[in-house]
Amino acid sequence: MKWLLLTLSIFVSISAFAEQDRYQFDNNKQAILFEELTKELRCPKCQNQNIADSDAVVAKDLRDKVLVLVKEGKSKDEVIDYMIDRFGYFVHYDPPVTPATLVLWVLPVLIVIVGFGFIVIRQRKASVKQTWSSDDEMLLAKLIEQNKRQEQS
Fold first, then answer.
1. Where is the CcmH/CycL/Ccl2/NrfF N-terminal domain (predicted)?
2. pTM of the predicted model over 0.90
3. Pick from 38, 134, 21, 136: which is nearest to 93 by CA?
4. What is the DSSP letter of 53?
5. Helix (H) or strand (E) holding 125
6. How deeply is 87 buried, as exposed, middle or buried, from its count of CB atoms within 10 A (0-12, 13-18, 19+)?
7. 153 half-sphere exposure, CB direction, 13 A CA radius
8. Neighbours of 80 (CB within 10 A)
9. CATH classification of 21-91 is 3.10.450.50, yes or no?
10. DSSP assignment of 66-84
11. Long-range pairs of 69-78 with CB within 8 A, sequence gap ≥ 24
């Protein structure tokens, strides 16, 4: 039993030592800003995971760079702009509206509207009612008479 407790205490102390790998900040404001930024920036490798949760090497590098920028006194927008300049709009979960993103959002809606309009116009052309004329009535009577003669023969 003593060995079990000794082994457990060693394991807990090793775990506590591993937890000390946290980042050190000059004040609480920097810690809060760092946490916000790491949750708002996307890992370029993982693609759908923020750099705070990612275990990728590039995410660790990004966290280290965010730490350096925060300690230099950069604002949240300045850090985000730095990351966007380096990795593109993909690195930020809330990209700005640009002509390219506007096309991505508007073009599918326009395609659906044009397609729906095409279907409606085509249905209207197909459903144009034809009028029954006296010539059509005479032709029908003639065909019926021919059919009757062929049945009698």
1. 7-141
2. no
3. 38
4. T
5. helix 99-126
6. middle
7. 6
8. 19
9. no
10. HHHHHHTT--HHHHHHHHH
11. 70/25, 70/30, 70/33, 70/34, 70/37, 71/25, 71/26, 71/30, 76/33, 76/36, 76/37
Nearest to 80 by CA among 70, 31, 53: 70
Structure tokens at 31: 């810690």
**How does pLDDT run across 108-153, given as a tens digit for each residue?**
999 999 999 999 998 888 777 667 888 888 999 999 999 988 888 7
Parse the chain into domains and list their residue ranges: 21-91, 97-127
Tokens at 5, concatenated: 């407790």
Check residue 115 and give its pLDDT.
Answer: 95
User: How far apart are alpha carbons 12 and 121 in whole angstroms?
Assistant: 73
Distance in angstroms (rounded) separating the CA atoms of residues 110 and 63: 41
